[in-house]
Specification:
Chain lengths: 400, 211
């Protein structure tokens, strides 16, 4: 056993002893109390573990109950009910024929009862025209949406954006519609959709990895071979992939106010590339393979991940970097989170994590602790932040 | 006072397992004999209480978990297919699963803002303040680990179980337990490194530091 192992064992032993003392393990009084409580309750279930006869009775009773429940469900439940949806984190019940607009600087989620979700980018506006058993009809008035529609047989989801219509069965895709600029863009992350509209002779099927652009607002690109701006243009066509790569939220574009990011037009389309971002760094992290996860994240482009991931995934990425012993990368992810998602809980937590990264370096840690306390004075880590600030103050005074 | 020797459960002498008493106890429980449940409780309460304390921490819900673990064991005893010598491992696994379930429930409630972070009882005041603070930090770090890492780390380094015993407890292969334990250790050391007291403890060793 190495010296490091031995030290860890010693710490564990000391902790076990302290826990035993703290919890009064082995206390007769405590055991008597627990024993009494157990014996009061146990006889009620004791028979289940023993007698085969009782087993049979329970089994028969169980079957009767199940049969009755099945009958009730069969008789009472309608075969199909129209979908419902909830808006935002507050889960406000959504209505049909309602217009919903995302806030100025934050995306907004619509969660449907079949598990499908639609995320509106900041400042985007949709109208829910109809909800039925097999789907939903909605109109994208302006902005971007990212939809993740759960695949079910005979699904009937449709999105209208101006003169364009996108029919969906089960898929993840985004649509960007700007009526003023006359630009319509649809891209696939999973599955396929069919698009109809001006400039499209027949319904055009869009597959994974493809980004389709229509409308006069797009400048023709010589490489695409389009001769007229109004013609449909297939941009960034990539080899179709069978699997979803990016987690089904393209938070980078969703958090960007609609109209703010002109860079996506006429050039390489941000979300279109999301299909290349395989999430396996996260899968590796979930398996505890932090170093391998970081290697994969580096291979995918750490800076790109910092620019693309949503706040939750960025916190995770920072944790993974920290666990892999790469503090600089952890700081990079946390700073990206604060830059891209200012003002939220995640940003405050990132400030606290940045203080933790600074460790014993009070000069580096203090500003982040102060920042956390300013942003979340009653947050879950506020006590610990205050205690660290006090510790730093004490140290500074000691040095003086 | 610190224990001078860690006893792995494989070295704990369990009279019920060294004789046919366990077989008789199992039979009695299955028949529903009066007194069998009390004997079952008396024989295993120490093991259940200790393993729950390690994986769950010194928490006010500990007694509830002991109760829940025993009731769960009794309810599912008919599914126990091992022989008497495996009963301890099985009971311990039931307790670990019960704790896991409770911790998961807490995590969900915490994410939805319905539960505050885990609050452990204070560690004994007899310990010197620096050690007390270091141990409290260690406990916090363990509690903040991902659940699967928390389990294997606590069972290995705090409870002192053998890897094979941990694999039985958490229902994983030995290789997975080893891998997970290595990750858990990396997490712990990475966090401990940022804590001045724990850092000193792990770098120099408590006794050496004192010396």
């Amino acid at each position: 056993m190495s010296a490091a192992d031995e030290r860890l064992w010693r710490l564990g032993r000391a902790l076990a002893d302290a826990q035993d003392a703290s919890a009064a393990i082995g206390s007769e009084e405590r055991r008597a109390r627990m024993r009494q409580r157990f014996l009061a309750e146990a006889p009620r279930i004791g028979g289940r573990s023993g007698s085969p006869r009782l087993h049979l009775r329970y089994s028969i009773a169980g079957m009767v109950v199940l049969a009755a429940a099945a009958l009730v469900l069969f008789v009472l439940l309608p075969r199909e009910v129209p979908l419902t949806y909830a808006v935002g984190e507050e889960q406000i019940a959504g209505l049909v024929e309602t217009t919903i607009r995302a806030p100025q600087s934050e995306p907004l989620d619509l969660q449907f009862s079949d598990g499908s979700t639609i995320e509106l980018a900041a400042q985007s506006e949709v109208r829910i025209s109809a909800l039925h058993e097999r789907g939903c009809a909605l109109e994208l008035a302006s902005g971007r949406i990212f939809a993740d529609v759960v695949h079910r047989p005979h699904n009937d989801w449709a999105v209208r954006a101006g003169p364009y219509r996108v029919d969906v069965i089960g898929t993840a895709f985004w649509i960007d519609w700007d009526q003023a600029a006359d630009t319509f863009e649809v891209g696939l992350v999973r599955g396929e959709v069919r698009v109809t509209g001006p400039g499209i002779d027949e319904a055009r099927t869009v597959r994974v990895g493809e980004t389709l652009r229509f409308g006069s607002g797009f400048a023709p690109r010589p490489s695409a071979g389009a001769t007229e701006a109004s013609k449909a243009e297939v941009a960034d066509v990539e080899a179709p992939e069978d699997t979803v790569a990016e987690p089904p939220r393209a938070a980078e574009w969703a958090s960007r106010p609609f109209g703010a990011g002109e860079a996506s037009r006429g050039g390489v389309v941000g979300p279109g590339r999301s299909a290349k971002l395989e999430p396996d760094w996260m899968a590796l992290a979930q398996d505890g393979e932090f170093t391998a996860a970081m290697d994969r994240a580096e291979a995918q482009g750490f800076a790109t991940l910092c620019d693309r991931l949503d706040a939750k995934a960025l916190l995770k990425l920072a944790d993974v970097a920290r666990y892999a012993g790469q503090s600089d990368r952890a700081a990079e992810a946390l700073l990206a989170l604060r830059r891209r998602f200012p003002g939220g809980d995640s940003a405050a937590n990132a400030a606290f994590d940045l203080a933790r990264l600074a460790g014993k370096d009070c000069e580096a840690a203090s500003p982040w602790l102060d920042r956390y306390l300013q942003e979340r004075p009653t947050g879950t880590m506020a006590d610990e932040a205050r205690s660290r600030v006090a510790e730093c103050t004490h140290r500074t005074r000691s040095h003086d | 006072m610190l224990r001078s020797l860690r006893l792995s459960s494989s070295t704990v002498s369990d009279p019920t397992e060294t004789s046919s008493a366990t077989e008789r106890l199992l039979e009695a429980l299955r028949r529903g004999d009066p007194g069998a449940q009390a004997r079952f409780f008396d024989a295993y309460v120490g093991i259940v209480e200790r393993v729950l304390l390690r994986v769950f921490g010194p928490d006010s819900e500990l007694e509830d978990l002991v109760q829940e673990s025993f009731l769960q064991a009794l309810t599912s005893l008919h599914r126990f297919r091992g022989d008497a010598s495996n009963l301890t491992a099985w009971v311990r696994a039931v307790a670990v699963r019960t704790a896991q379930k409770r911790i998961r429930g807490r995590q969900v409630r915490r994410r939805t803002g319905l539960q505050s972070p885990e609050q452990f009882w204070d560690l004994p005041s007899a310990i010197d303040p620096a050690t007390q603070a270091a141990l409290a930090s260690a406990q916090r770090i363990i509690a903040a680990m991902p659940l699967e890492h928390r389990m294997v780390f606590s069972l290995r380094f705090v409870e002192g179980l053998e890897l094979r015993e941990i694999a039985e407890c958490v229902g994983l292969s030995l290789a997975t337990v080893k891998r997970r334990l290595q990750s858990a250790r990396e997490i712990f050391e990475s966090e401990a490194d940022m804590d001045a007291l724990l850092h000193g403890w792990l770098q120099e060793g408590h006794d050496e530091r004192r010396g």
